[in-house]
Amino acid sequence: MRLLLHRLSLLTAIMLPVSGCTAPADIHDTRFMMGTLVEFTVTGIPRETAERAITDAAAEMQRVEDAFTIYGNVSNTVKAFNASPPNTAITLPDEVSDLLELSLQIQKQSQGAFDPALGGENLLWGFSTDSPPVTPPAAGAIDKAMAPADCVRHVSSQWLRSDRRCLLDFGGIAKGYAIDRGIAVLKAHHIENAIINAGGDIRLIGRHGNRPWKIGIRHPRKAGEVLLSLSMEGDKSIVTSGDYERFFTYNGKRYHHILDPKSGQPAMYSQSATVIAPSATLADAWSTALFIAPVSPLPQSLQLIRVDASGKVYRSATP
Ligand code: ADP
Ligand code: MG
């Protein structure tokens, strides 16, 4: 996760306005977190109840950001792990340990496309810093930053890193996890119809009055245009990874923030990958993975809408 400011126009997915029948009374609130604008929409309950719930949900999401970020001044156990001497086991809080376990599982399932130990390369490229890069790193620097494969290990209930270059970075999954925690807090406040939209990463519950929620997926090359609009209800997450939010062009080539762990270079397989999944955590991690490389067969609980490097749109069958 980064501490960088996003502009509203860069959101990867948007909630489409309701047209036609009378819209239910929505309660909206926006907070700045995780380097992006997080929009809360709750419907069908009194404003004061909704506002209390949103305040609690936002506090929980901020707690998650602080627990996982490797940027900024907060201290946390992820940074402590990244500073730990090689081959020395340290204890991580259950929450961090669990998300790391899941990340490593997704790394395996995605044949290495998703890599939670890519912190060295991410820091080198610097897309998540307050002064984003305008040129690629110097030749040789990427090779030097690359950690050996499988450098993070579970040793009984503790974790160690086998090499100094091995740095955890939950930037590809923690925003989704924060959204899931936010929704859990809203549910604990007995809210049944809501959306949390963190810069285009969305989880929704229930319905929008007497109709499904309407979600628009941003076109990866036509700013302000919707690639696809979807009606969704129940409890679903939809997250997009794209090459158009954080990028620079250098010598006519686009460089962006989602790296192929094989090369340490921006992945060139897609313009965007949108994943619909049962949780925002899974949707977030898998949208990053499937942006980078194909995975066959696609895990059963996932739906994918991908725009390839030439702009062609692929859509998986509905599970
Ligand atoms: P966004 O943060 O823009 O929503 P993603 O969810 O796709 O986009 O996550 C991109 C972030 O994930 C990067 O900023 C970096 O912190 C991290 N990252 C980059 N490449 C990978 C990768 N191959 N596997 C896991 N995380 C990655
Ligand atoms: Mg992601």
From TrEMBL:
<keyword id="KW-0460">Magnesium</keyword>
<keyword id="KW-0285">Flavoprotein</keyword>
<dbReference type="Pfam" id="PF02424">
    <property type="entry name" value="ApbE"/>
</dbReference>
<feature type="signal peptide">
    <location>
        <begin position="1"/>
        <end position="25"/>
    </location>
</feature>
<dbReference type="GO" id="GO:0046872">
    <property type="term" value="F:metal ion binding"/>
</dbReference>
<comment type="similarity">
    <text>Belongs to the ApbE family.</text>
</comment>
<protein>
    <recommendedName>
        <fullName>FAD:protein FMN transferase</fullName>
        <ecNumber>2.7.1.180</ecNumber>
    </recommendedName>
</protein>
<dbReference type="GO" id="GO:0016740">
    <property type="term" value="F:transferase activity"/>
</dbReference>
<feature type="binding site">
    <location>
        <position position="284"/>
    </location>
    <ligand>
        <name>Mg(2+)</name>
    </ligand>
</feature>
<keyword id="KW-0732">Signal</keyword>
<feature type="binding site">
    <location>
        <position position="288"/>
    </location>
    <ligand>
        <name>Mg(2+)</name>
    </ligand>
</feature>
<feature type="binding site">
    <location>
        <position position="172"/>
    </location>
    <ligand>
        <name>Mg(2+)</name>
    </ligand>
</feature>
<dbReference type="InterPro" id="IPR003374">
    <property type="entry name" value="ApbE-like_sf"/>
</dbReference>
<keyword id="KW-0274">FAD</keyword>
<dbReference type="InterPro" id="IPR024932">
    <property type="entry name" value="ApbE"/>
</dbReference>
<keyword id="KW-0479">Metal-binding</keyword>
<keyword id="KW-0808">Transferase</keyword>
